[in-house]
UniProtKB/TrEMBL annotation, chain A:
Chief localisation class: mitochondrion
Membrane topology: Peripheral membrane protein
Protein name: Cytochrome b-c1 complex subunit 2, mitochondrial
UniProt entry tagged with the keyword Mitochondrion: yes
Family annotation (SUPFAM superfamilies): LuxS/MPP-like metallohydrolase (SSF63411)
Peptidase M16 N-terminal domain span: 58-200
Gene (UniProt): QCR2
Provenance organism: Polyrhizophydium stewartii
Family assignment from sequence similarity: Belongs to the peptidase M16 family. UQCRC2/QCR2 subfamily.
Keywords: Electron transport, Membrane, Mitochondrion, Mitochondrion inner membrane, Respiratory chain, Transit peptide, Transport
UniProtKB/TrEMBL annotation, chain B:
Homology family: Belongs to the UQCRB/QCR7 family.
SUPFAM superfamilies per UniProt: 14 kDa protein of cytochrome bc1 complex (Ubiquinol-cytochrome c reductase) (SSF81524)
Record's keyword annotation contains Iron: no
Membrane topology: Peripheral membrane protein
Alphabetical list of PANTHER family matching this protein: CYTOCHROME B-C1 COMPLEX SUBUNIT 7, UBIQUINOL-CYTOCHROME C REDUCTASE COMPLEX 14 KD PROTEIN
UniProt superkingdom: Eukaryota
Annotated source species: Polyrhizophydium stewartii
UniProt-recorded name of the protein: Complex III subunit 7
Location of the protein in the cell: Mitochondrion inner membrane
Gene: QCR7
Keywords for this protein: Electron transport, Membrane, Mitochondrion, Mitochondrion inner membrane, Respiratory chain, Transport
Coiled coil: none
Length: 459, 128
């Protein structure tokens, strides 16, 4: 018996020994002793934002670790599309890595592969992102690669056609997911244009696009004031020097493309998905923007509605939140809190059996209304903790670039959420005020499913 | 070495260009309305990929030229002189794509068979 225990203990020790082998004095599969004096805690991350010589913003979050990410975040998401070229941001995302002039795209990819770097592009409602994950030492080759790709003027017809085919598939696959379809419609109902533009290029939208429209969109939006170079795990001074060098031979327009501020409308839309489909129902009210002082309050409201999501076997909507009381066996209710640079949405998303939806939606609405009349001290304290944990959790490698980019692009500084403990300053009256303000507006209601789903005026 | 130099200067000379033009006009393909790039054999994977990359209208025009040329060949005829391909319309529409595909394959092979990492790729950011 003792032997078994000893063996089990040895095996248990082996796993960390592999991970920490760099810190060990002598490599041993069973034990390790740490090499030299070790710091008791990781050094605090260095957060810096500044303007490069070319006018682009450089934001770094240096955690001093060996893994780095670099992203070129351009304020050129789907909200900036004009009415005659919908879907241009989605297609541009798919064709962001192209054959450079007098070179092949294979070299670019093989070089990245040789170093073990990744290269990916992403599009959101506000941002177009070209990013790479790499080891800290590789910064020197990542910066010119990304910059030259973003400002690549060469665009072959076949690249456009290949990207269009890929985009169409992506759209079809994405909209297969009922929740994605629901939120697409929700944005359309809530904001109509701008943030209401579809994130996905439809078949007909793609048909109306050509290379000239893509180039025109890029020319208009890839300007100095709209570009943020976001680094995580990179030294700010080094990144800035490399960015200056890479942008030296790029002709950057300093013109400012005016964009209309988002306006909230509200309304109702229904998507027929047949009687057998899983029903989805979203009710949202105008929320808060990133940079706004109420942003932390919105995180707490979300936590109040959802509760903690770390209960094993708990419901999709989380446990102990206000919405968990509304959920039934087959139907869950989840808080929705989406923030953009100048607008947001707050509310809930009900998913499950069509017959239960009406009851769950009315109960969820009651829960949300109860927040307008007051919130207990214990619930608020619990929600603050849950909000802080959720915010900490979002600070992963991928999430970090995303949040730093969004914050720096919107406000030119590190967003307050980078300092998650500020969530502790939210008071009950803040919550009450936020919810009261939201509920005063006309809701945006979207139903996806069969005919049994309630209309907005039946709630 | 001298011979090589003189050959090089010959290739860039006016006489050589004139000979080239004369030769192209006498190969016969222009009289059937074809372009030089239409004569590239299209069986291999490289040219097939290059053809896939052609803009759709170029591909349709190419097919049209082939149909016309086959018909002319069957009837042992030539196009009327004003419809012959001229030096201006004899555009290299396929060769750049073939070259691009070949370069891509060559690049991949170079990387796949790389025995040591080239110095240009070894630069690192060691300072911090």
């Amino acid at each position: 018996m003792m032997r078994v225990h000893a063996l089990a203990a040895a095996c248990a020790r082996r796993a960390p020994a592999r991970g920490y082998s760099v810190l060990a004095d002598a490599p041993s599969p069973v034990t390790y002793t740490r090499k030299g004096p070790q710091p008791a805690a990781a050094p605090p991350a260095v957060k810096t934002v500044s303007k490069a010589a070319s006018g682009v913003t450089v934001a770094t979050y240096d955690h001093l670790g060996p893994q780095s990410s670099l992203a070129i975040v351009v304020n050129a998401g789907s909200r900036f599309e004009s009415a005659d070229a919908p879907g241009v941001a989605h297609l541009l995302k798919a064709s962001l890595v192209r054959t450079p002039e007098n070179d092949t795209v294979t070299r670019l990819i093989q070089e990245a592969e040789l170093r073990g770097n990744t290269l990916y592009s992403a599009v959101s409602r506000e941002h177009l992102v070209l990013a790479s994950d790499f080891l800290r030492d590789d910064l020197v080759d990542v910066v010119p690669t990304l910059v030259s790709q973003v400002f690549n003027r060469s665009f072959h017809p076949y690249e456009f056609l290949d990207a269009a085919a890929l985009t169409e598939q992506q759209t079809a696959v994405s909209l297969e997911d009922p929740a994605t379809h629901l939120f697409e419609k929700l944005h359309q109902v809530a904001f109509r244009t701008g943030l209401g533009n579809s994130l996905f290029a439809s078949h007909d939208a793609l048909h109306a696009l050509d290379r000239a429209k893509l180039q025109a969109f890029a020319d208009k939006h890839f300007t100095a004031d709209r570009i943020t170079v976001v680094g995580s795990g990179v030294s700010h001074t080094e990144l800035k020097a490399l960015v200056d060098a890479a942008f030296a031979d790029v002709k950057l327009s300093s013109a400012k493309a005016e964009t209309a501020r988002s306006r909230y409308f509200g309304g109702e839309a229904r998507i027929d998905a047949g009687p057998h489909s899983e029903a989805h129902y979203a009710v949202t009210f105008p929320g808060v923007a990133y940079g706004s002082p109420e942003y932390n309050t919105s995180l707490v409201v979300r936590a109040l509605l959802d509760g903690s999501k770390r209960v094993k076997w708990g419901s999709r909507g989380g446990a102990l939140g206000l919405l968990s009381a509304a959920a039934t066996e087959n139907t869950t209710s989840q808080a929705v809190s989406i923030s953009y640079s100048d607008a947001g949405l707050i509310g809930f998303h009900v998913a499950g059996k069509g017959g239960d939806v009406k009851q769950v939606v009315s109960k969820s609405l009651e829960s949300l209304r109860s927040l307008a009349s007051g919130v207990s001290a214990e619930a608020l304290a619990g929600a603050k903790k849950a909000a802080i944990i959720a915010a900490e959790e979002a600070a992963t490698r991928a999430g970090l670039v995303d949040s730093v980019g969004r914050g720096a692009a919107a406000t030119g500084a590190f967003h307050a959420s980078a300092d998650v403990l500020a969530i502790n300053n939210v008071t009950a009256s803040d919550v009450q005020k936020l919810v009261q303000g939201a509920l005063a507006a006309k809701p945006s209601v979207v139903a996806l499913g069969g005919a049994t789903l309630p209309y907005a005026d039946e709630l | 070495m001298k011979l090589l130099e003189s050959l090089k200067s010959l290739r860039t000379s006016k006489t050589f260009a004139a000979f080239n033009a004369w030769h192209a006009n006498n190969m016969g393909y222009r009289k059937k309305g074809l372009r030089l790039d239409d004569l590239i054999p299209d069986e291999g994977p490289v040219v097939r990929e290059a053809l896939r990359r052609l803009p759709p209208h170029e591909f349709q025009e190419r097919n049209f030229r082939f149909k016309r040329a086959i018909y002319l060949s069957l009837t042992k005829a030539e196009l009327p002189k004003e419809e012959w391909t001229t030096a201006e319309t004899d555009i290299a529409y396929l060769r750049p794509y073939v070259d691009l595909v070949q370069a891509e394959i060559q690049t991949k092979e170079n990387f796949d068979t790389m025995a040591s990492i080239p110095a240009a790729l070894l630069q690192r950011n060691r300072s911090s």
